[in-house]
Amino acid sequence: MQSVFQAALRSWAVPPAATFAIVLSALVYLRGWWLLRRAGVPFLPPWRAVSFLSGLFALWLALASPLDVLNAFLLTAHMSQHMVLMMVAPPLVLLGAPLIPIVRGLPIFAAREFAGPFLNWPLAQRIGNALIHPVVALLLMSLAMFAWHTPALYELALRSSTWHQVEHACFFLTSLIFWWPVVQPWPSREQWPRWAMVPYLLVADLENTALSAILVFSDRVLYPSYSAAPRLFGFSALDDQAAAGSIMWVIGSLAFIVPAVAIAVQCLSRKPLPEAFAPPRRRETSRWDALWSSGIKSVSGFAKARWKGARAEAVTFVVLFAVAGFCFARLLSGGGSDDDDLALRFQAASGPFAVAVFAPTGNLALGPSPFSVLVQDRNTQEVLLDSTVDLTARPSADPQGQPSTVRASYQDSQNKLLQTVELDLPSAGDWTMAVAVHRDSQSAEFSLPISVAKAETGFEFPWSYLVVLVFAALLSVVYFRRHRAPIARGLPMSSPALVHKENAKTSIGCR
Question: How far is CA 499 from the centre of its chain?
């Protein structure tokens, strides 16, 4: 029989939409990085690509690993997840200097018509420079960190998978902004002297220390959900909270102090600029690069013989955008059940067993409803993985009616410490559910009331598809406004001066 620790390590919940977005980002970056390396750009050595991919992998681990599955039971797992989202993934992503490779990795039509003009838009530049100003960046990350660790917002994220995803996005994005002045990814420029990053990081470390000290030294459990949740590994909710604060204290301090020391040493030693910042030089073309280039030229020559270059680029972009947008919207809308949407509905002890039952919040809807059951030893709180659980439901108004009995299993459960089953509830009203637990010669039965309501009929609005359509409409408006503006000013589209001006604006990453 597998151990509880092994079962916990097998508890993975891969998010389809987030995984698709991360993989797509990695492919776009790698394409841009490879094209820039072929062009002889010396600012992107291989270690930058490794760093960027490592950052994306760390982000995926935080969202898909047991840290996410177990965060409703263990504050230590939840805090470790937050540390990866804030202290590990963002600096690794920025060390990959992602801006130019991602733009270059986009289809040429998208880079020339949208990404390039947007990056050269003065308003976008002003907003970007304001966000990555050290004072603003420090305030944003501090606000996100303290706000989401208040009991009210923390409990909201534990109860709702949607708010949980918002919390994760907030942590990751504000941390990207915070680490930007520290990493200073190419080709951005410093707004403060390099030595100013030392006090910048030390102030962040003081804030992290203050928040972690509250968790470590508090004499009461700050988040009620962890007081009510079953204890999986034998230590109390207060001990779990202290351990989570210690993780935050140690990992956060290392993440802030190590780069602060490195920057201080760099400033004091007054070393010359590294080779990566030397003037660019052409890289010798290998035989493989020559063969690849000749192949690409042959394919592109055949395409241009069939279509004009601009038309082929536009058609390619529209097809790729439609495929990627449809896949992302489909994965986002068809994500299936999430353990974050299940709440503790029943907890009791009988005989040698202690049982906790999890189900969707509120009244259950007609039809199949998911239930998860945790079985523990009543005295030691050890999770009993070799127990058998049967769920039986019958209407309360007809106790002699035909019951519906289903056996739970670990097969379809994200959390491999819980047994999961879908129980069919065919009619509305009050029901009684019996949970029968068997292990060797021992057995116990638990009973709990549940309420079933008629499902609301109506059209479920496809929000994910609407977002993609709105984004496509916005890109279309931008494109037509850019190409109609010269006509409105009385300038021909083929004006050499206009072409030179447009090429100068969109030259970034579009060679």
Answer: 40
- Name the CA radius of gyration of the chain, rounded: 28
Q: What's the CA gap between 447 and 118, in Å, rounded?
A: 61
The whole-angstrom separation of Cα 345 and Cα 217 is 31
Q: What three-state secondary structure class fits 54?
A: helix
Residues of the chain with CATH 2.60.40.10: 339-453
Q: 459-495, pLDDT tens digit by residue? A: 566 788 888 888 889 888 888 888 875 544 444 444 4
**What is the total residue count of the chain?**
511
**Which amino acid is it at 370?**
P
- What predicted TM-score, i.e. pTM, was given to this entire model? 0.83
Residues 6+ apart with CB under 8 A from 476: none
Q: What are 388-429's pLDDT values in tens digits?
A: 999 988 887 776 666 778 899 988 888 888 999 888 888 888
Neighbours of 349 (CB within 10 A): 14
Residue type at position 60:
W
> For residue 336, which of 60, 17, 72 has the smallest C-alpha distance?
17
Closest by Cα among 253, 128, 242 to 203: 253
Token pair of 305 as six digits: 């013989």
Residue 430, helix vs strand vs coil = strand
What single string gives the DSSP state of each residue in 4-36?
A: HHHHHHT-----HHHHHHHHHHHHHHHHHHHHH
Cβ atoms within 10 Å, residue 258: 11
| CATH number given to 339-453 | 2.60.40.10
- 3 state SS for 63-131: HHCHHHHCCCCCHHHHHHHHHHHHHHHHHHHHHCCCHHHHHHHCCHHHHHHHHHHHHCCHHHHHHHHHH
Helix, strand, or coil (residue 249)? helix
